[in-house]
């Protein structure tokens, strides 16, 4: 069970990470390498964290391309970008991820996103007092399977 202080630090980490991801999404351009994209995220976090009394540490896991490209490869139109970001505030780590595409998504990318959104909504509807997280996960996983996505990978 988390205390209010712990919850506040976790929420602060989420807000800072969102600021970093927004900076990345707005300023990312074709040709940028993974290191460039991580730098944008870190700049967004640092700007949002200015003046905080707690130490802020980030860890970034970025995958560029449908088949992971090397760290020196530049982004091109249509590339997916998977960002799994950890923002630790005062010793409490908030872990979140976002997926983007460079330019408009392909029809396949749009369909996969729609499938994931529906599964998320199905799971979210079950996130109520009395239900275990295992149950919520099972509902979301079953939703993916019903929609034709029998296997998936979260990156862990």
Write the layout of secondary structure elements.
Layout: H1 4-27, H2 34-49, E1 56-64, E2 80-89, E3 92-101, H3 107-125, H4 133-146
Antiparallel strand pairs: 1-2, 2-3
Helix pairs in contact: 1-2, 3-4
What does this structure look like?
The chain is α+β, with helices and mostly antiparallel strands. The protein has 2 domains: 1-104, Creatine Amidinohydrolase (Alpha-Beta Complex); 105-156. The chain contains 4 helices and 3 strands, in the order ααβββαα. It has helices at residues 4-27, 34-49, 107-125, 133-146; strands at residues 56-64, 80-89, 92-101. A 3-stranded antiparallel sheet has the order 1-2-3, covered by helices on one side. Strand 2 (80-89) and strand 3 form a beta hairpin.
Task: Briefly summarize what is shown.
The protein contains four helices and three strands. The longest helix is centred in the N-terminal third of the chain and has 24 residues.
Keyword list:
156 residues; alpha+beta; Creatine Amidinohydrolase; 3-stranded antiparallel β-sheet; 4 helices; 3 strands; 19% strand
CATH topology of the largest domain: Creatine Amidinohydrolase
Number of helices: 4
- Give me the CATH architecture of the largest domain, please: Alpha-Beta Complex
Shape field: flat
Say how many strands there are: 3
The gyration radius over C-alpha positions equals 17 Å
Question: What topology, given as strand order, has the largest sheet?
Answer: 1-2-3
Per CATH, the class of the largest domain reads Alpha Beta
Mean pLDDT over all positions: 93
The biggest sheet amounts to: 3 strands, antiparallel
- Within CATH, the superfamily of the largest domain carries the name Creatinase/methionine aminopeptidase superfamily
């Amino acid at each position: 069970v988390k205390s209010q202080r712990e919850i506040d630090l976790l929420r602060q980490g989420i807000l800072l990470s969102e600021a970093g991801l927004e900076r990345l999404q707005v300023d990312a351009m074709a040709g940028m390498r993974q290191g460039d994209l991580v730098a944008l995220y870190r700049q967004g976090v640092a700007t949002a964290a200015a003046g905080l009394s707690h130490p802020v540490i980030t860890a970034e896991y970025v995958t560029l391309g449908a088949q992971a490209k090397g760290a020196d490869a530049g982004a091109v139109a249509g590339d997916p970008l998977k960002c799994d970001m950890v923002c630790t505030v005062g010793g409490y780590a908030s872990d979140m991820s976002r997926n983007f595409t460079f330019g408009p998504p392909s029809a396949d990318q749009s369909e996969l996103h729609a499938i994931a959104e529906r599964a998320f909504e199905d799971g979210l509807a079950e996130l109520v007092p009395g239900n275990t997280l295992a149950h919520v996960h099972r509902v979301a996983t079953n939703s993916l399977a019903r929609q034709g996505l029998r296997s998936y990978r979260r990156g862990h």
